[in-house]
Amino acid sequence: MNLLDVYKELNTETKCLAFLEHMRWPDGVKCLSCESERITRITSKGKTNRKTGKTGPDRKLYQCNDCRFQFTATTGTVYHDTHLPLHKWFLAICANHRIEKGNLR
User: Which of 25, 41, 55, 83 has the highest CB neighbour count under 10 A?
Assistant: First the structure.
């Protein structure tokens, strides 16, 4: 995948999360705590900033039905707790990979 492909194919947070989920769990989502495959998708409402009054985006979470552990596709990765959107991360990684290989296409 070259830089232009990444820019075209992974240009939204939803697409990036789907790509990350597929790469992380090719056989389906498993709990990071107990390895259970009994997972429920939940949505957590965005938090409201006390100073500005703005509400952040809703978060897509998984919850294990066995141990109740909540996690996302980014939990335990370099993308966890970042304020940079995933599409920017993917572009930066792709560009860095191209530079390391000496291939600037």
Answer: 25
User: Could you report the average pLDDT of every consecutive run of 10 residues in the chain (105 residues)?
Assistant: 77 90 94 96 86 84 96 91 86 74 52
Q: Name the token pair of 33.
A: 């705590």
Residue 7 is inside which H or E element, if any? Answer: helix 3-9
Alpha-carbon distances, residue 80 vs 28, 53, 71, 83, 89 (angstroms): 20, 24, 10, 9, 12
38, 66 Cβ separation under 8 angstroms:
yes
Determine the Cα–Cα distance for residues 67 and 62; give it in Å rounded to an integer.
12
DSSP H or E stretch at residue 97: helix 86-101
Token duo for residue 31: 């709990």
Report pLDDT for 98. Answer: 61
Q: Give me the residues paired with residue 42 across strands.
A: 61
Name every residue whose Cβ is closer than 8 Å to that of residue 91 and which is 6 or more positions away in sequence. 3, 6, 7
Q: What is the pTM of this model?
A: 0.73
Contact 49, 56 (CB under 8 A): yes
